[in-house]
């Protein structure tokens, strides 16, 4: 069977690059995307010039300043990056529908069926890289391979503006030589344990049978058994952007008082959060729905300042909306929906932005 053709595209120092694009006087300078150095803010990313000084994501802005006092500090403009990301994904979709976004600046594309350039994955990757450069004036790096694992490792291999191709016959050697921390799922804790067993590179893991790998490291052990042998069966799974997530309860017995509705909303807010979490989304808008026995219904919405992902927030807003209502009659159905969704991992980044603004005030 022909192997799959998977590419992983990752923008180079994404937030920083966008800011440098939009303000050319920043080009070639160390640029740090964060709140001011005298705040408690954290670095989102840094230009490659700043990275030479040891500045990187998740460092405190203060430490970044100590390492590179001449750096230009710029607060993140999240809406702008989202707009760029949207255009980026439009480009991806010209080549395949099998696009799996990982974050604003990163995606897997399965181009096995793309007929361009005689189905040469390398040439398609080059075309995508050029299209991004010409249309968005931004550079990205791309990994080209036969599975997700190697495509992702490839995109990080020659940054910035690199393309790394890992052919099927090179996969095993590549993974054998790789630092064990480069494999998915290996965080700090796992790394320490792996080191205790003398595992520093991919090939060090080959000493374990599948059974032993599982016994020692559980699920991670099974995936490392495969990954360190360049085997990765994860498929590129595109999904349609959910517009809203919600939950409705048709009541066994009608209710009519605010106290009763309030209690049920609290329950529904748990289930709504469970569903939005399952979809890995945060939300900015909460809507309640109240349907009466005579089938008339009302919906009321409130939008928040920040994206959120907690049951407390859903419940609080639902209760607030309920408070404004004048209930009139027997209620047969209640519902809560959240909308204005965002990728879950962007919620945490955004909270940091919130802190930036608080700090500069
Ligand atoms: N980001 C963030 N906090 C982090 C990591 C990332 O806010 N801890 C944001 C800023 C980045 C963007 O997400 O610009 C993309 O993350 P990447 O990990 O892809 O990092 P960069 O694109 O900035 O750099 P690289 O060129 O190494 O990919
Ligand atoms: Mg990136």
Main β-sheet, spatial strand arrangement: 5-6-1-7-8
Structural class: alpha+beta
Identify the bound ligands: 2'-deoxycytidine-5'-triphosphate, magnesium ion
> How much of the residues is beta strand, in percent?
15-25%
> How far do the termini sit from each other?
61 Å
User: What would you call the shape?
Assistant: globular
Question: Could you tell me the mean pLDDT?
Answer: 93
Tell me the quaternary state.
single chain
Helical region count? 12
Range of helix content: 40-55%
- Unreliable stretches (pLDDT < 50, length at least 5) are none
As a whole number of angstroms, the C-alpha radius of gyration is: 24 Å
Number of strands: 13
Listing every helix as H and every strand as E from the N terminus to the C terminus, the arrangement reads: EHEEHHEHEEHEHEHHHEHEEHEEH
Question: Can you give a write-up of this model?
Answer:
It is a single chain. The protein has 361 residues and is an alpha+beta fold. The protein is 40% helix and 22% strand. The chain contains 12 helices and 13 strands. The chain has a 5-stranded mixed β-sheet with strand order 5-6-1-7-8. Strands 9, 10, 11, 12 and 13 form a 5-stranded antiparallel β-sheet that branches. Strand 5 and strand 6 form a beta hairpin. Helix 4 packs antiparallel against helix 5 and helix 10 packs antiparallel against helix 11. The site of 2'-deoxycytidine-5'-triphosphate has 14 residues, from strand 1 and helix 1. The site of 2'-deoxycytidine-5'-triphosphate (DCP) has 14 residues, from strand 1 and helix 1.
């Amino acid at each position: 069977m022909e192997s799959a053709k998977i590419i992983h595209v990752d923008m180079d120092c994404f937030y920083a690059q966008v800011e440098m694009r939009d303000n050319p006087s920043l080009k070639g300078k160390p640029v740090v995307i964060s709140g001011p150095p005298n705040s408690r803010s954290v670095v989102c990313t840094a230009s490659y010039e700043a990275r030479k000084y040891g500045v990187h994501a998740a460092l405190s802005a203060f430490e970044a300043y100590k390492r590179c006092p001449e750096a230009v500090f710029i607060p993140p403009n999240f809406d702008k990056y989202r707009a760029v990301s949207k255009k980026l994904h439009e480009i991806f979709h010209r080549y395949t529908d099998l696009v799996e976004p990982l974050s604003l600046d990163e995606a897997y594309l399965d181009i096995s069926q793309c007929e361009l350039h005689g189905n040469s994955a390398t040439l398609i990757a080059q075309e995508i890289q050029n299209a991004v450069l010409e249309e968005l004036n931004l550079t990205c790096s791309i990994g080209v391979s036969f599975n997700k694992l190697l495509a992702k490792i490839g995109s990080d291999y020659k940054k910035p503006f690199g393309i790394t191709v890992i052919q099927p016959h090179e996969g095993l050697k590549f993974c054998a030589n790789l630092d064990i921390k480069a494999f998915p799922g290996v965080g700090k804790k796992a790394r320490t344990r792996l080191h205790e067993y003398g595992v520093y590179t991919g090939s060090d893991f080959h000493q374990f049978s599948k059974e032993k790998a599982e016994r020692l490291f559980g699920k991670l052990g099974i995936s490392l058994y495969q990954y360190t042998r360049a085997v990765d069966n994860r498929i590129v799974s595109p999904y349609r952007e959910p517009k809203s997530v919600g939950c409705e309860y048709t009541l066994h017995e009608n209710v009519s008082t605010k106290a009763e509705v309030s209690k049920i909303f609290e329950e529904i807010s748990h289930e709504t959060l469970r569903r939005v979490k399952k979809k890995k989304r945060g939300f900015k808008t909460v809507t309640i729905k109240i349907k009466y026995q005579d089938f008339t219904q009302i919906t009321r919405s409130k939008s928040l300042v920040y994206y959120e992902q907690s049951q407390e927030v859903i419940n609080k807003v639902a209760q607030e909306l309920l408070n404004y209502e004048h209930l009139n009659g027997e209620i047969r159905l209640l519902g809560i929906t959240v909308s204005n969704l965002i990728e879950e991992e962007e919620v945490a980044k955004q909270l940091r932005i919130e802190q930036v603004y608080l700090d500069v005030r």
